[in-house]
Design a protein that fits this description.
- By secondary structure, the protein is mostly helical.
- The chain has 9 helices and no strands.
- The protein is globular and about 45 Å long.
Length: 172
């Protein structure tokens, strides 16, 4: 008799990304409560493998199309609410935020980010700059950057190129 955890570990080791990428697709497309149940059944090793594969998708320029597809789907999901995000599994929430923002830092434990902050970052209600995390718009600012609520506050975003480089705190 074999436990499902043993089977799951072996399948992940043998199949690698070929097995994990369809799961990532399910995370992006499936209802949050359905995936939350699945996350509760996953082993820590499986979740770590998922996060590792997502980091690869984010960092690998050859997989940029895949990341853009996931981001477009997540951007257009009208069924995701703050309440639903707060009820989701913590790892699921980290993955959703990392995919939507394209920032692998949300998958790392180095940052102490509450689930409510993650949910608000996902919904563009809070600045996604990990050193800022101000509520958007900052101080009820009505400038064109803050009003768009595109994930950064006017303090963190370059007004010229509308980008922010997390690594060096400069525009790219």
């Amino acid at each position: 008799y074999r436990s499902s955890n043993q089977d799951e570990k072996e399948l992940l080791l043998v199949s690698g990304a070929d097995f994990v990428e369809p799961i990532i697709t399910m995370i992006v497309y499936e209802p949050l409560h359905v995936m939350a149940r699945r996350f509760n059944e996953m082993t820590g090793q499986s979740v770590a493998c998922l996060k590792e594969t997502i980091c690869d998708i984010i960092l690998n320029t050859g997989k940029r199309w895949q990341l853009c597809t996931f981001q477009k789907v997540l951007q257009n999901r009208s069924d995701i609410t703050l309440e639903m995000l707060l009820k989701s599994h913590r790892a699921q929430l980290e993955i959703l935020v990392a995919l939507k923002t394209g920032l692998q830092e949300f998958l790392q434990r180095n940052y102490d980010i509450s689930s409510s902050d993650l949910a608000e970052i996902f919904l563009n209600l809070r600045c996604r700059n990990l050193t800022c995390r101000n509520l958007l718009p900052v101080d009820e600012c009505e400038c064109k950057v803050c009003v768009q609520k595109n994930g950064f506050c006017s303090t963190c975003m370059c007004l010229v190129c509308s980008k922010f480089d997390m690594a060096s705190n400069t525009c790219s």
